[in-house]
UniProtKB/TrEMBL annotation:
Location in the cell: Membrane
Keywords: Membrane, Transmembrane, Transmembrane helix
Composition-biased stretches (Low complexity): 246-277, 288-308
Chief localization: membrane
Compositionally biased intervals (Basic and acidic residues): 309-318
Lineage of the organism: Bacteria, Bacillati, Actinomycetota, Actinomycetes, Kitasatosporales
Segments for region (Disordered): 241-330
Organism per entry: Streptomyces coeruleorubidus
Transmembrane segments: 23-46, 58-75, 106-131
Membrane topology of the entry: Multi-pass membrane protein
Key word Transmembrane helix present: yes
Keyword Transmembrane helix: yes
Name of the molecule in the record: RDD family protein
Pfam families: RDD (PF06271)
Length: 330
């Protein structure tokens, strides 16, 4: 990985191409150039058979220069550093600052390439690439260019990690109508890439985004909640609302299996603490992403009225009530 800094003080991380991929790209370009040169030479010899030997020699030299020297220069200039071999290998020639090359860069590379590739059969180019820290040959050094890889493994992005279980449903009462789409996009991009950022930089970005989001909603960030966890919880709440609107299930609707259960948003901190205890794997995953979980105030277990335990609240059917066959525990 090579880190380059542009004139706008933007750090670019480029992957310089190494010798094997560059050699394969040059070999493909040479095969195509030689095939074109042979075809053009045959056509010229057939069409200029009536000329004298000096004219034929001049045409042969002109064909060599135009096809084997001018051809690669023209191709790299028009394609901004992507010849046929480089396209096949996923490479591109760029300037030292990461920008596209121009005619002067391609001209210097092509002229020096005749000496270090064609005349020495690539020996000088291989030695220069081995010595250079970024795998540059002499043509790249004098032209101020660099061959980089375009097709690189891309990390999985686009997945927003779920919020910690103890924050599920905690922000169900927030008014999210004043949050612009640009802020939502910035928050989502941060959440999908926060594992790739420096910890200090990621923490400062999370604090800034959480402050902006809290200013739009009118409710400050709760004490003890990490900013990244707050952002994930609010984004999860927005996605839940959009899902309810899309599937037509309003706040008052309930499924038959959960007809007697309270909604997740009304269950209170005790239910969230119980969900953490029931799903240790999920809690460990979110803790690794957002840091150690912070137990919110009032998350202690809530006892039933009168101090009775849940198993003691059942009554034995007596009198005229029909028996159900249920025997309470001793």
């Amino acid at each position: 990985m090579s880190e380059l800094v542009t004139g706008e003080a933007v750090a670019l991380e480029l992957r310089p191409a190494r010798l094997p991929s560059r050699a394969l790209a040059v070999l493909l370009d040479l095969v195509v150039a030689v095939a074109v040169y042979v075809a053009v030479t045959i056509a010229i010899v057939v069409s200029t058979a009536s000329l004298d030997e000096a004219a034929q020699t001049a045409l042969s030299i002109a064909t060599f220069v135009l096809v084997l020297v001018g051809g690669p220069i023209a191709v790299e200039t028009l394609s901004h550093g992507r010849s046929l071999g480089k396209v096949a290998c996923g490479l591109r020639v760029v300037r030292d600052d990461g920008g596209p090359i121009r005619f002067r860069h391609a001209l210097v590379r092509g002229l020096i390439g005749v000496i270090e590739i064609l005349m020495t059969f690539g020996v000088v180019a291989c030695i220069a690439s081995f010595v250079s820290a970024r795998g540059r040959r002499l043509g790249d050094v004098f032209a101020g260019t660099l061959v980089v890889r375009e097709r690189i493994p891309v990390a999985r992005t686009g997945f927003v990690p779920p919020p910690p279980p103890w924050l599920a449903g905690r922000f169900s009462g927030l008014d999210l109508s004043a949050v612009p789409d640009g802020l939502w996009l910035a928050v989502r991009q941060y959440l999908t890439r926060m594992q790739q950022l420096d910890p200090q930089v990621g923490w400062s970005m999370a604090e800034r985004l959480a402050s902006d989001l809290a200013g739009r909603t009118g409710v400050p960030v709760p004490q003890g909640v990490p900013p990244a966890a707050y952002l994930a919880a609010v984004v999860h709440e927005r996605q839940s609302r959009e899902a309810r609107r899309a599937f037509g299930s309003g706040p008052g609707s309930s499924t038959p299996s959960a007809a007697g259960a309270p909604p997740a948003a009304e269950a209170g901190p005790a239910a969230h603490a119980a969900s953490v205890a029931e799903t240790p794997a999920a809690a460990g995953t979110t803790s690794a992403v957002y840091g150690p979980p912070v137990v919110p105030p009032g998350a202690a277990a809530v006892e039933s009225p009168g101090g009775a335990r849940p198993e003691e609240s059942h009554e034995v059917p007596t009198g005229d009530r029909p028996g159900t066959g249920f025997v309470p525990p001793a």
